[in-house]
Amino acid sequence: MSGGDMAKPLLGHQSMEGDPSIAPAAGRTIGVLGSGDFARSLAIRLVCSGFKVVVGSRNPKRKAGLFPSAAEVTFQAEAVKKTDVIFVAVFREHYSTLCDLADVLAGKILVDVSNNTEINHHKESNAEYLASLFPACTVVKGFNVVSAWTLQSGARDGNKQVLICSNNQEAKRIVAEIAQVMGFTPVDMGCMSSACEIENIPLRLLPAWKIPIFLALGLFLCFFTYNLVRQVIHPYIREQKNKFYKIPVEVVNTTLPCVAYVMLSLVYLPGVLAACSQLYYGTKYRRFPDWLDQWLQHRKQIGLLSFFCAALHAVYSLCLPMRRSHRYQLIETAVKQAVEKKMNIWVEEEVWRMEIYLSVGIIALGLLSLLAITSLPSIANSLNWREFSFIQSTLGFIALVISTLHTLTYGWSRAFDENQYKFYLPPTYTLTLLVPCTVILAKVVFSLPCIQQRLLRIRRGWEKGRYVKFVLPSATGEYSSGETSSNV
Ligand code: NAP
């Protein structure tokens, strides 16, 4: 094996040095059944973490050259005899071919590292299936969430968590120790019934992002169609002008800020709805409806997508003057002015509008970048609760207000110009203002002292007309119950 990354000491290994609970794991002999990609990476990592490794293969002679020289590669039965902890690095379909080893495997710990190709592929998890084939063994599910690449890439990169479950606490502890020595963070997922859930994890594609992505795509499609009708279809039908060249850049660039702005307001709208619900019911102990719960949980992803669209809008806007169509239009305007002998084209109001529009846009993008950076787990973990809520809540709301100013300076007086109502459709920016302005207005109302005080009391546990159950002994010595209002 080449030295490379794996020759360097592992972070986890270093951090566990001096921890007496971990000492017995290092130096232990670990068995690996199988000689494929995962077995190879696992063996390399185990060797580098100080374990003795014995690999069990159907064809040890052919496979030995693929493993580090410190690892012993032998026949399956031989390997199993030399160790008590064996990683089963073969696919579920081949588990039954290991049944000949049942006698030598009896009483040993088998670590099931397997994954499936589909979510809930089989009725029982792979680990439960392995346990049913080898009832005399103790099966631990683990390591399936780390890839062969993560195992190879050493301490610097890759997922650090190893999810572990088993019905046997001692076996689970031993495997957790091995994971720690290898530089991973073991996470106890409970008993074997969690195996199915653990096996499904590597198959899920961005589960937390699904709803926000569909939301962003839905908004993009709606605004894109709306802008297309106003900017391209309307001039084509009404004035027979071909403006289809606008589709790739201009229409996209007027759509992106609409999505970014509305998405940003959708980060703060569920908080407003939650506050309304708390004020209405006079308690914080009533569960929100499921859709609101889901919405609250997806705010981070919605905010990040808002930032993504805003960043794209900035890049598109910077590129606008590079387009050939823009140059032609500039020259055309200059020629027209020369023909009309117009010398002064300076419109003071337009100049100021543009300066303010750009400036607030840049500030809004800067604030959104700050929100995006602080939502990264490594940064968020370094902030205390007050700092995090100041940035995400206060600065986030300021970003929404500044984005509203950006939108208003863009629209200026266009909402009052009847030429702007193409096919009687109002300018797009007036539509985008609806949700953000509702959120801003609601926040202003909530900051009124009478409402703010009530909300604060509710969030500290006060409840409207709360009744407390009490139990009194009766004259006969029996207990009778009743209710009284805590407010009295
Ligand atoms: P692989 O490269 O195809 O290796 C599978 C190994 O299984 C073979 O090299 C073979 O070794 C052994 N085997 C034992 N009995 C077998 C049989 N009857 N037919 C064929 N092969 C047999 O697969 P892998 O990528 O290492 O994956 C192994 C296990 O790790 C799978 O359960 C997989 O889900 C899991 N896993 C893999 C990764 C990854 O990144 N690759 C990540 C997480 C989990 P011998 O010929 O030496 O016996």
From TrEMBL:
Entry keywords, A to Z: Copper, Endosome, FAD, Flavoprotein, Ion transport, Iron, Iron transport, Membrane, Metal-binding, Oxidoreductase, Transmembrane, Transmembrane helix, Transport
Membrane topology per record: Multi-pass membrane protein
Residues of the Ferric oxidoreductase domain: 259-399
Top-level taxon: Eukaryota
GO molecular function: cupric reductase (NADH) activity; ferric-chelate reductase (NADPH) activity; metal ion binding
Ranges where the Pyrroline-5-carboxylate reductase catalytic N-terminal domain occurs: 29-116
UniProt similarity note: Belongs to the STEAP family.
Protein name per Swiss-Prot or TrEMBL: STEA3 Metalloreductase
